[in-house]
Amino acid sequence: MPNPVQPPYPHPSGAVAPVIPKQFVPKHVAVVMDGNGRWANARGLPRTEGHRAGEASLLDVVAGAIEVGVEYVSAYAFSTENWSRSPEEVRFLMGFNRDVLRRRRDLMNSWGVRVRWAGRRPRLWRSVIAELEEAEQLTRENTTCTLTMCVNYGGRAEIADAAKAIAHEVAAGRLKPDRVNEKTFARYLDEPDLPDVDLFLRSSGEQRTSNFLLWQAAYAELVFLDEPWPDVDRRHLWRAVETYARRDRRYGGAIDRPGASAT
């Protein structure tokens, strides 16, 4: 019998989640955790200390997602481009991602969070893969929220890998080329069950998607925060959700309303 789910710890300020009708709450939030290194350097610290400080921000944002009703959170933990950073920082990030999973998986499990992994296996440390798979196994039955850790992940790489897999299926005669459409293609992505991104949230003032969930974020609402990631907490997420709730999502459609204000 599964253990009872515990609610996340409250925010130290006493802030509580805004009450937003379910239909206006994003189902899937993608998070680019940017600005860790700059946050640390601005304080005279090495970049790695910014990554350490960002761990608490991720936990608090997941807590806030649960409280406001977000069902999926995808976190950009290490990109396929991050291998170009200094060897020292890459080694730190590999070990840090591994250790965060080890330290926090029981807490995630107690909150009812299902942990998933999206990304490429090649080059990724085997110890990191082992911790990702252990967290997936431990939390596989949880339904409160799904946290997808995107480690050694790139949107273009994911699309290229899906295309390669489809090409193999076609070459083997198991799939007809004229049967390949968007729905078929999506089945070959890293996490086929992951819904499209509704809200794309990035910290630290940068206003770009940086190769994150390109396929899934085709119609995402973009919200950019000025704060570096270590200064972000669940209150920033809640404000972004409120911004999302006020936007008119038309998915390429439109209603003719002569005389309506251009704004």
The count of β-strands is 6
Highest CATH level, the class of the largest domain:
Alpha Beta
Mean pLDDT: 94
User: Going by CATH, what is the homologous superfamily of the largest domain?
Assistant: Decaprenyl diphosphate synthase-like
Query: What name does CATH use for the topology of the largest domain?
Result: Undecaprenyl pyrophosphate synthetase
Rounded to the nearest angstrom, the radius of gyration is: 19 Å
H/I helix tally: 7
* Largest sheet: number of strands, sense, barrel closure: 6 strands, parallel
Structural class, please?
Answer: alpha/beta
* Principal-axis shape: globular
CATH architectural type of the largest domain: 3-Layer(aba) Sandwich
Beta percentage is 5-15%
Query: Which consecutive residue ranges, at least 5 long each, have pLDDT under 50?
Result: none
Q: List the domain count as a whole number.
A: 2
SSE order, one letter for each helix or strand = EHHEHEHEHHEEH
Strand order of the largest sheet: 3-4-2-1-5-6
Q: Between the first and last Cα atoms, what is the distance in angstroms?
A: 54 Å
Helix content: 25-40%
InterPro entries: UPP_synth-like, UPP_synth-like_CS, UPP_synth-like_sf
GO molecular function, one term: magnesium ion binding
Pfam family, one: Prenyltransf
Subunit structure: Homodimer.
